[in-house]
C-alpha cells in the first residue's frame, strides 16, 4: 500500500491473478452444469473462437467497441473499432492482460464487478473507467459487461464499450470553470492566474506552465505568472532580472504569436530555430502554447510543457477554453481592483454567462443568489427565483433524485453533476444539467445550470422513432438486413433474428443464412441471388428451417453498385408469410 492508502500496481495485478483463478474455478462449475443442455438445430456448429473474417466484417463498421475475454481474463478478440479507438492497427497484436491497460485508480472497481458477474451471469453492470491507448493517453470508456461463458456460441465475457472522453472532458472543464469563478472572488490577480495555471497543468498532464501578457504595441512581452510546480520544482530564478522583453528575443514558444494560432512542439529538441533556455530553466521535451486574441490584438499567451506523451487536439481545445476564461476573469479582476467593487463586477460577469450561476442554501431549500440567465432560460425574475422553494420548481418525477443529490452535497461530496427538469414561468418544463460544489458549513452550494432541453427533446424523439420502427417490424413480422457483397457479412435487426430463430447479436453471414434455408430451396436461392443481383430486382419467396419447423418467408432487396457497375451492398427485408401460405 502507498502512504495515501492506495494499492500499488503490483498489488492490483496480484488481485487480478487471483481473479483469473476464480474465473477458472467458476468456469469449471458452469461447464459441469451445462452438460445436459440441448442445442437447437440451428447454429449447432461451434463458432470459431479466433473470430475469422466473416465475424470481423459483421462488426467492422460498428461505432462501439467489442471485446471478448477468455476464462483467464485475457483478450480473446478485439473488434476493429476497439483497436482503432485506442490507436492500434487492425493487424496489431495486443498480448497484455486488460488489467495492464486499466487506470490503477479504476482497476479495483473493475475487478470487483467482474467477480460479481462471474458469480451471477444475470448481473450486467455498466461502468465508467479509464483505459490507456497505444500512445499512452488515457481515455474514459463506458462499458457494459456480460457473462456469456455458458453460451456455446460465444463462451466469453463480452465487453461493449464507447469512448466518453469528450463528455468527461466537458464535465471537467465546467468543474474547473466553476472552481476558478469561486477562487477569483477572494484572491488577487496573480494568485488567480497561478491557480488557473495549476488547473491547466493538471488537465493537460503537464508539469510546466506560464501565462504572460502581450503589450499594446504587440512587440513586447510582460512576464506575469508561472505555475506553482514551475516555480518550486522546475525553474530557478525565472523572471527575476526582467519583467519585460521584446518578442524578437523570445524562444520558439512565441511561434503562436507569429502564426496567431495554437502551436504544438512535440519534438522540441529537434526544432532548428530554438534559441536555448535561461539559466536555471528545466529542459523542455514538448510544449503547447495558445494565444488569447481579442479583435486584431494578441492579449496574452498561455503555455504548458513536458507532458509525458504527445499533446493532442483535445489538449489544444481544453487549453484554448481555459485561456479565454482566464483572460476574461483577469480583465474583470483588474477592473475590480481599480474600483474596489469586486463583488458587483464579478456578478456582472456571471450575468452574461449563457448558463445559470446560482447559490443555494440546502438547509433552507432556497436559492440565495442567481444571475440573469434565470430570466433568459426559465422566465423568472431573480426575486421570484430566490423566494420560491427550489423543490417546487423541480418536476415531480425528478424530485427524489434531486433530494438524493442534495443529501450527497451536504455530506461533503466534492462536485455533483446531475440533470433534472425545472418549471418555467409559462408552465412548461426545461431540462437543466447541473454541476455544483459541495456544501459549506452553512449548507450553501454554488452551481452552474446549462439548458439542455433541445438535446433531451432530440434524444427522446430518436428513442420514440426507434420504438415505433421496432414495433412496426414486430407486428408485421418484417425484419431488415444488410449484406456486404464483397465479404458476405450480414447485419440483421432483432426481428430478422426472431424470424430465423437466432439469438439477437449472433454473428451471421451469407453462409449461415443459407444454412437456415430449406435444403430444397438452396439451389433456387443461389441462382436467384446471382442473377437478380445484377438486375437489382431480387424478390423471392422460399422456405427456412427454424427449430425443426418449416417457415415461408418473402425477401426483397435493393442493390448498390460502385462506379464500374459491380454490386457492393444490398439492403432488404424479410417477412414471415407462413400464415399466408
Strand order of the largest sheet: 8-7-6-11-10-9
| Largest sheet data | 6 strands, antiparallel
Taken as a percent bin, the fraction of beta residues is: 25-35%
Topology, number of strands: 21
| Contiguous helical run count | 18
From the helix content, strand content and strand pairing, which structural class follows? alpha+beta
Helix fraction by DSSP (H/I, runs of at least 4): 25-40%
Q: In angstroms, what separates the terminal alpha carbons?
A: 71 Å
Uncertain segments are 1-14, 30-52
Radius of gyration equals 30 Å
Rough outline? globular
Query: What value does the average pLDDT take?
Result: 82
Short description:
The protein has 581 residues and is α+β, with helices and mostly antiparallel strands. It is 37% helix and 26% strand. It has helices at residues 9-33, 53-59, 80-85, 107-119, 165-185, 189-204, 228-234, 255-259, 313-339, 342-351, 373-378, 382-386, 390-393, 399-410, 453-476, 494-500, 510-516, 522-532, and strands spanning 65-69, 75-78, 126-132, 138-148, 156-163, 208-214, 220-226, 244-246, 263-265, 287-294, 297-305, 356-361, 366-370, 415-423, 429-437, 444-451, 478-484, 489-492, 539-546, 549-561, 567-576.
Written account of the structure:
Helix content is 37%, strand content 26%. With 581 residues, the chain is an alpha+beta fold. The strands form 4 sheets. A 6-stranded antiparallel sheet has the order 8-7-6-11-10-9. A 5-stranded antiparallel sheet has the order 2-1-5-4-3, sandwiched between helices. A 5-stranded antiparallel sheet has the order 13-12-16-15-14, with helices on both faces. Residues 1-14 and 30-52 have low confidence and may be disordered.
